[in-house]
């Protein structure tokens, strides 16, 4: 067993497969009317980190754990963590386990387009609730030169997983969007009776 565990971290897709079968994950169902499609939010820093990696490794794949949190149905990605790996133009061999706090994984297709391959579907996409693929593009707006696609598995109320492809991706202005959630309630201002400030000697407020 110890030998098997050690091996797990030295292969990438092969061990994803092993993990997949070992974990007993069920294949996702196609749709569930009770679950809406999630949205993926990226901090601008994440876009910068990915752009840096694409520039540094323009002709090989690379992969990284995705850091962040899941809030309600949506995923907020706050950073990437590049793990030890050996890469070629079409493979990534993972050489250490997922880091603490990882909520998913992503990998690069450099200039090969952002469609998941059959291998991607069988291994990373089957083992992670959030899996992304990145390619170089000429026409991204906020994503400036990147084509990013995510596939996401979301748990249904009855405990199955439903898979969403081509999940919308938005770039967040700031982490404040997560921190602020539910904290400020706006209500209508009720103005006091005329003369209130006058009697209080606060004429400047009239
Ligand atoms: Zn791939």
Mean pLDDT: 80
Distance between the termini: 79 Å
Which sequence of SSEs, written as H and E, runs from N to C?
HHEHEEEEEHHEEEEHH
> How are the strands ordered across the major sheet?
9-8-7-6-2-3-1-10
Attached small molecules: zinc ion
Number of helices: 7
Unreliable stretches, pLDDT < 50, 5 or more residues?
Answer: 1-11, 20-24
Class derived from helix and strand content: alpha/beta
Integer count of domains? 1
What's the total number of strands? 10
Going by CATH, what is the homologous superfamily?
Cytidine Deaminase, domain 2
Sum up the overall morphology in one term. globular
For the biggest sheet, the summary is:
8 strands, mixed
Write up what this structure looks like.
With 206 residues, the chain is α/β, with parallel strands linked by helices. The chain has one domain (2-205): Cytidine Deaminase, domain 2. The chain is 23% helix and 28% strand. It has helices spanning 2-8, 13-23, 44-56, 118-122, 124-127, 176-179, 196-199, and strands at 40-42, 63-71, 74-81, 85-87, 92-94, 102-108, 130-136, 146-155, 161-165, 169-171. The strands form two sheets. An eight-stranded mixed beta sheet has the order 9-8-7-6-2-3-1-10. It has a two-stranded antiparallel sheet with strand order 4-5. β4 and β5 (92-94) form a beta hairpin. The longest helix has 13 residues, at 44-56. It is globular and about 80 Å long. The site of zinc ion (ZN) has 5 residues, from loops.
